Amino acid sequence: MTTEKGLWAGLVLDALAGDPRRGHPVAAFGRAAGALERRLYRDSVARGAVFTAVCVAGAAGAGLLVDATGRRTATRTALTAAATWAVLGGTSLGREGLAMAAALEAGDLEAARRRLPHLCGRDPSALDAKELARATVESVAENTSDAAVAPLFWGAVLGVPGLLAYRAVNTLDAMVGHRSPRYLRFGRVAARLDDAANWAPARLTGLLTVACAPVAGGSPRTAYAILRRDGAAHPSPNAGRCEAAFAGALGVRLGGVNVYGNRVEDRPELGDGRAAEPGDIRRAVRLSRAVTVAAAAVTIGVRAAVRAWSRSRRR
Predict the structure, then answer these.
(1) pLDDT at 309
(2) d(CA 59, CA 275)
(3) How many domains does the chain have?
(4) Could you report the per-residue pLDDT of 62-97, keeping only the tens digit for each?
(5) What pLDDT, on a 0 to 100 scale, did the predictor assign at position 315?
(6) pTM higher than 0.85, yes or no?
(7) Strands 252-253 and 274-275
(8) Taking a C-beta distance cutoff of 8 angstroms, is the pair 198, 141 a contact?
(9) What distances in angstroms separate CA 68 from CA 27, 62, 71, one per listed residue?
(10) What SS3 state is found at 257?
(11) Which domain covers residue 70, as residue numbers?
(12) Cβ-count burial of 106 within 10 angstroms (0-12 exposed, 13-18 middle, 19+ buried)?
């Protein structure tokens, strides 16, 4: 039960403290990965594969070392809690969402535009209040899976090595997985690996969003209908499941034209509701927190049940 207790303790730590302002372990990993990239970079899929393999294997190896070091039950629980806290980002995600909501509700568009890069990579300079609200709700939806559900899922499946390896994969995707001229080839493996790692967690996020829809004043039936109809319309194989479920649960319409620097994407609309408004951000954050707790209950509960069943079989 040490892993299960550690995962719950890490979730509580994240809820109480969020991410540290300085010295975050994920930032340290990012700096190390950046240094390695400067040494290995070539405009090549093979070089990108080597880079990705070294970084992910290093993170998983660190997790195995933690498991080997923590032989005592209390030590292993504490180390698992620390690793879980380090890779979770749900609390910080919610805080950023609420800060954006406060800026928009105060009518401070400039402050809201300055905050948007904390949540997503699109260009905020020409966005009005409703477009900023849409961007925030979409980011909260997608990152509920990336920052909360997926770490809990992989922690329940593979323990500390799963936690650290998943965060490495997700961080590498953010660093080199985007479709820029520099990373089109070099970042391809990182991007595909991130898609694979998030396949199951994104679909779990969608289903849990349906179940938690009443928390945001929504209907599970409507949320499920939108998830089934629109989940595959998004260009991402995973983000669409989360965004469609949130759109249905919140009764809003997501999707549309997004500008990322010099790149413009015209994404399909998700949902049948009205355009997202600043007030919907607080509902989205509330829904995200409910989904996170539900994901912990499901993933950790299933892990505990499987362990109990395995022990009973051995007897």
Answers:
(1) 81
(2) 41
(3) 1
(4) 999 887 776 677 888 899 999 999 999 999 999 999
(5) 66
(6) yes
(7) parallel
(8) no
(9) 24, 10, 6
(10) strand
(11) 2-314
(12) exposed
